[in-house]
Amino acid sequence: MKIRTRAFLLGLFPTLLVAAVLTAFHLFSRLNELDAKISQQGIAMARHLASASEYGVISGNRGALENLLDQALNEPGVKSVAVVWPDRKQLARGEPIVQLQPLYQLGQKEIGERAWFIYPVQLPQLNESDPFLEAGTAERGPLAWVAVSLDLQQKQAIARQLLLASIGITLLGVALASLLIHRLALTGLKPLLDIIATVKRISSGSFGSSMEVTAHSPELRELQASVNLMSESLRSYQQDMEAKIGLVIAELENKRQEAEQANLAKSRFLAAASHDLRQPMHAIGLYVECLKLQVGGEKAEDTLSKLDRAVASMVELFNAILDVTKLDAGVVQPLVVPVRVRRLLHQLAEEFAAEAERKGLSLRVRAPDVWVESDAILLERIIRNLLTNALRNTVEGGVLLSARPRRGRLRLQVWDTGSGIAPEHQARIFDEFYQASAQPAQTRQGLGLGLAIVRRLARLLGHPLQLHSRPGRGTVFALDVPVLANPSCMIDDAVNQAPGGTLSGNALIVDDDPVILNAVGHLLRQWGMKVQASSSLDQVMQIGDAPDVVLADYQLLNGETGLMVAHAVRQRWGAHVPVVLITGDTRRETIQALRESGFPVLHKPVRVHQLRATLGRLLQAQPASPVGS
Amino acid sequence: MLLSEPGGIYQTAAESLTRELRRHPADWKITTSALDGYAADDSDLIVAIGTRALEKALEQSGKPVLSLLVPRQTYERLAAGHVLASALYLDQPLSRQLQLLALALPGLKNAGVPLGPTSAGMQAVLRSAAKESGVQVSSAMIDDGADLYAALTGLAENSQAFLLLPDPVVMRPGTLREFFLHTYRLRKPVLAYSAPLVRSGALLGIYTTPAQQGEEAANWIRESRGGNESRLGPPRYPRLFTIGVNRTVARSLGIVLPSEDVLFRKLEAVK
Q1: Which of A57, A126, A135 shows the shortest C-beta gap to B187?
Q2: How far B255 CA sits from the closest chain A CA (Å)?
Q3: Which one of A49, A76, A448, B35 is separated from A336 by 20 to 30 angstroms, measured CA to CA?
Q4: Res B232 pLDDT > 50
């Protein structure tokens, strides 16, 4: 408890207690006194009135009684008076008389706000017996009764007055006591309170706060001085610290700027790599595919096959590095849409079925038909990477893609029966280029970027990612995805199947790079399609035959874009003509614009089987074209 | 008829007298006059109703005067020496009063009579009346300024009831209440001489009403004029009277009284 509070309590509590006790005592005794006074007055008045009524009662002189009652009613405090005869007849004055029966049992009684006093009217008993009057006088009751009622309101009024006066006096006393406590008791405590206040200021960070040394006692003076000294020391210490921290901050700022510069350089390099390397890699891929069809012979096929794998591996590495860079740079923005999980899982399983079969592994899907909220492309990428990882690390047994609802979310899991990950590696398995050393060297495959991308994408999408693994038994990766609240409105989108066999139809390819134009045209013709090529929007408008499908590069010369081509095509030949946009542009705005356009998009370098699958799907979904053959 | 005052009991008595005289056809000439406007005329008889009327009538010497509504003592004081005057007294004979008291309160032996300066002269009459009625009478003198209550208390020791006689000192209008209250406290019933006193607290009273006075006076006048004798004869007590009982007082004092009629008949029988 604070000293101030204690001082006030000590000073005020006895004052209040005494005031309360005195008030109660005074009130009690005053009211008792009043009661006694009223009682005395009432009894005296009733007795007097009874005596005065004797004549009127005995002689039956009503006039005399009426006069008497009128006079009595004029007495202060008298509310009503009455003479009541044994036969219950009564003569009354004043406020309504209450029922006063049986009268002889009453002497004094309070009814409501009135006190009643009853006194009998009777002739005094004679000492001497009188034979003449003896008959019938022995047991006679009173001749009548006199009833007087007095007002008790004055008593209540006085009680109220007393109470108010007592409260007033008490308040005055409390005020005086408070003043005295403040003046006398707390003045002595002031130095101590000053010290407390100063220490509080210091503790709240206001170093250097000081107080006037006012205490009279030497100990307190010393304490005050010491506190002032301590405050001053703290301030100088703080100033030293601030100077040092300033230096450190400046140093850090330099480092940060350097890092920023480095990062900028890295970004510039990546942009350049992205722009300058994509194009030739795209072309190499396309040419290798053309060569496969042109060059015969077992040796050549073998070489081409190796070349193809090397190119694929290079593309994969290039894409993975770019992906990680993009994710780290924060240029990827998720576009959350409803995603039908079962279809996604089945598509992936189908895509990887051949590889699983090659390794002699089973690949199964177990998933309910549920819609989730996620970015379709990024989610597919996560599962694809996990699936790739699982197949790569499993030698026998199999892989299971499963999904099951769990606490309002859908838990997507990729199980494998691979070698498992030792606990000491589990924490680092998601780092870039990290490969668990438990794996034998000859089985090492991949770049060590797949799981790094998975972790970045899961974070970006806000999907919790978990890993459970037991060495020698297998591993399971789990991803929790929010379930779409109201999936009933979703309709099934186009059937997404990779077609096989030859393609047919009229394809229009638009690209400003003649090398690409040439390579793609060559490839499509080999797949059995008719090809029309153009390098600009103008040329597109001059083409005679309506295309069944259009492949357009996004970035064309003179500021033209694939999107413009797409719109022009749709305008000219109708909205049913499918357009595929191909881009090597990794800028955020471009990716966003393409995504919002709703056209299918392929990123350079495009994998040949991906291109073929896309074309096949689009041509199959399209109604029969009048010019297609 | 000469009235002390116009209206009131004097008028009642005068009307009764006139009515009674005219009941039997006779050639009466009656004039009524107030005190102020009175002048001597040729009337044969002056009926003076009230004390002041009697005084005025007696001034007219030479004419017979009949006094009504005047007590015996007053009449005797005023009419001494007037041979032509006669009176029908207002008060009752003492023996009649004592007899009534004896009838109303069987077993009564002693009656107390407070006397004042006016009624002091009645002591002799009292003694004879006591003998006549068989009720012993003791009296106490109350002078002006004397303690009425002490006297009453003393008197009560030897008497069972009080007989009240007209006396301005004994019955002062302001002390009426105290007088009766004292008698109640002494438990002594009072026999009074007028209706207002009975109403004021006396147990019972015997009195002649103004109407009865008028009626009896008319009969008297008619009888005296019956022969040639024109003299009225000596003054006398009234023959007509009324008995009044205050039942509240009787109840308060615990006295059981017969009805007024019964008392009246008994009193008539005694006579």
Answers
A1: A126
A2: 7
A3: A448
A4: yes
Strands lying side by side in the sheet with B33-34: B33-34, B2-3, B46-49, B65-70, B85-89
Counted residue by residue, chain B has a size of 271
Residue, of A322 and B7, whose pLDDT is higher = B7
A502 vs A500: CA distance, rounded Å: 7
Cβ atoms of A55 and B177 closer than 8 Å: yes
The Cα–Cα gap between A338 and A484 comes to: 7
Q: For residue A135, which residues of chain B lie inside 8 Å, CB to CB? A: 254, 256
pTM value > 0.95: no
Q: DSSP string of A26-62? A: HHHHHHHHHHHHHHHHHHHHHHHHHHHHHHHHHHT-H
Alpha carbons A146 and A47: distance in angstroms, whole number: 8
Task: Looking at the complex, report in whole angstroms how far the Cα of residue B142 sits from the nearest Cα belonging to chain A.
Answer: 22
Q: Identify residue B232 by its one-letter amino acid code.
A: L
Task: Dump the DSSP string for B119-139.
Answer: GGGGHHHHHHHHHHHT-EEEE
Residues from chain B contacting residue A57 (CB–CB below 8 Å) = 252
Q: Evaluate whether A534 touches A541 at the Cβ level (below 8 Å).
A: no
Q: Which of B110, B149, B162, B177 to mutate to test the interface with A (most CBs of A within 10 A)?
A: B177
Please tell me if residue B185 touches chain A, with a CB cutoff of 8 Å.
yes
Two tokens, residue A92: 């009354």
Contact A194, A214 (CB under 8 A): yes
CB contacts of B107 in chain A (<8 Å) are 131-132
- According to DSSP, residue A408 is labeled T
- One-letter amino acid at A608 equals V
Q: Max CA-CA distance within chain A?
A: 175
Average pLDDT, chain B: 88
Q: Quick one: how far is CA A569 from the chain centroid?
A: 49
- CA atoms of A300 and B102, how far apart (whole Å): 180
> Could you tell me if B124 and B153 are in contact, meaning their C-beta atoms sit under 8 angstroms apart?
no
Helix segments in A295-375, DSSP class H: 298-329, 341-359
Backbone angle region of A339, left / alpha / beta, with phi > 0 → left and psi within -120 to 50 → alpha: beta
Q: Is B266 exposed, middle or buried (0-12, 13-18, 19+ CB in 10 A)?
A: middle
Q: Average pLDDT for residues A377-388, to the nearest whole number?
A: 89
Mean pLDDT score of chain A = 82
By DSSP bridging, strand A549-553 and strand A506-510 are parallel
A78: which 2 tokens? 């008298």
**CA nearest to A394, candidates A415, A414, A421, A419:** A419
Residue of chain A whose alpha carbon sits nearest to that of B176: A55
Q: Which long-range contacts (CB under 8 A, 24 or more apart) does A484-490 make?
A: A484/A338, A484/A370, A484/A371, A484/A372, A484/A373, A487/A338, A487/A370, A487/A371, A490/A338, A490/A340, A490/A371
Q: CB contacts < 8 Å between A and B, how many?
A: 59
